Amino acid sequence: MKEWLRQIPPVHEIQRHPQILNVEEELGVSREKVTSWIKETLDQIRADLLRNQLTIDRATDFMDYVVQRVYEKSQDWKQYSLTEVINATGTILHTNLGRARLSDEAIQHVVEVAQNYSNLEYKILEGKRGSRHNIVEELIKEVTGAEAALVVNNNASAVYLTLRGLAKGKEVIVSRGELVEIGGSFRVSSIMEESDATLVEVGTTNKTHDYDYKSAINEDTAMIMKVHTSNFKVVGFTESVDKDILVPLANKHNITYYEDLGSGALIDYGESGIGDEPVVKEVLDKGAHLVSFSGDKLLGGPQAGIIAGKKHLIDHLKKHQLARVLRVDKMTLAALESTLKAYAKGTKSALHSIPTTRDIVKNVSEIKAQIMSFLERAEGLSLFSFQVQSSFSTIGGGTMPNEQLETYGVTVNCYKMTPSQLERQLRKLSTPVIGRFLNDQVFFDFRTLTPRDIDCLYNQLLELNQKLEVM
C-alpha cells in the first residue's frame, strides 16, 4: 500500500498528460475544472489505498490508471442529471418518470420561445407593458367556460393560493372523506394550516350529509371546499354531497364554493368507457365558483396549476403577492398554450396530438401491431427471446386508480442473465429502459411506447446484446 502511495503522480504531471489535455479540448472546460477532477481523483485513490479497498494489477502503469480515473470522472460530469428514459412500464402519467409528455407542437413552441425574445409581458399592438397572466387566460376560458383564469407553478400552489387569498383567518368546510394526502406527503389539512385558513371537518370518513355542511356554516365561514379524491376510492356504505346541493348552499350564505379537481380532465373519458373523472367545464357549468387542477396530468401539458372560475375571485388572486411568487415562466406558458390550443380545436385534435390522451384511449389493435413490428426487427438479438403477453396498463399520477386499461406487451428473457440482473442492466444503458415485472419476468408494456421509443428500445437491446456476446 505504501509503495502505491509513493507512486501517486503529482498534479502538474497529470495535467500535461495527452489524454487529459484532450479532455479539456473535448469538453471545452477550463484548466481549473480539470485540475479539480484530478485532485478529487487523487484524494479518492489515497483514501481507497489507506482502507485497503483498491487493488491494482502490478502490470498496470500507475499513471495510466490515474489518468483513466480522471477521464471517467470527466465523462460522468459530461452526462446530464436529467436524462431521457424509455417508459415501458405502461403507466402513462408516471410521476417518477416526469408525468405527461408534451406534444410535438408544444415542444416546438417552447423551443421558439426559449431561443428568442418574446412578448411575455409586453402588449405588441399598444407598445406597453403587459401581463403574463393574459397569455393563456383566453384559451382556458374557451375550453372550460370559466369567466377568468390564473396559472401558477403546480396544483399544490393553486390550492394554497386559493385558500390563502380567499380564506385567510376564516373557516373552510371540508368533508372528512376528502381530507386526502397525495404524493410527497401533501395533505389538504396541512396546506390548510399553512394558508392560515381554519379547517372545519364535517361528516365521517365514509358518509357526509347536506345537514353536516349546513350546521357548520357560521359568520366566520369563507368557503366550502370539495376535494376530488382522484387517487383513491371509498366504496361500500358511503354517501357524499354533490355540487347540486353545495353550490346553492354557498350562494345562499354568500360564501365561495371551490372544487380542487386535481387531475383536470378537459374531455369526457367516460365516453371511451374509461373512468368517471369530472370534466372541468361541467363542474363550472354547474355553478362552482372556482376550480383548480394540474397541467401535467390528464390535461397532458407542462407542470402547472390552473385556477379557473368567477372573474371577481380570479382578479383578487391575481393581485395577491403570492401570485408573483408562484408564477410560471415563459417556457411553461408556451407549452401550456400549445396544449390548450389542441383542446380548443376539438376532442378529435386533443386525442390525436396530445400524448397523454392518445395513450389513454390507445386501441389494443394498434398496440399489437407495434409489437409485431418490433419482434420482426428483434429476431437478430441472439441472446434475447420475447413472448407476447396481455396485461393491464394504469393511468398513474394519482388519477383514476381503479381504472385498468387492457394492453399488450412482451416478456423478455436473456440467456446470460436472470430477470433481476436484466432489469438492472436495462437501467444502466445509455438510454435507460424502465419496464416492470410480470410473472417474475421483465415486461415491456407497449401502450406507453411511441414508434421512436420502439426504435430506441431496439437499439438499446442491440447495444446490450453486443456487450454480452463478448463476455
UniProtKB/TrEMBL annotation:
Question: What are the record's GO terms for cellular component?
Answer: cytoplasm
Q: Which domain of life is it from?
A: Bacteria
The record's Gene Ontology biological-process terms are: conversion of seryl-tRNAsec to selenocys-tRNAsec; selenocysteine incorporation
Q: What is this protein called?
A: L-seryl-tRNA(Sec) selenium transferase
The gene designation is selA
Provide the GO MF annotations for this entry.
Answer: L-seryl-tRNA(Sec) selenium transferase activity
Q: What is its main location?
A: cytoplasm
Give the subcellular location.
Answer: Cytoplasm
Q: Give the sites modified to N6-(pyridoxal phosphate)lysine.
A: K297
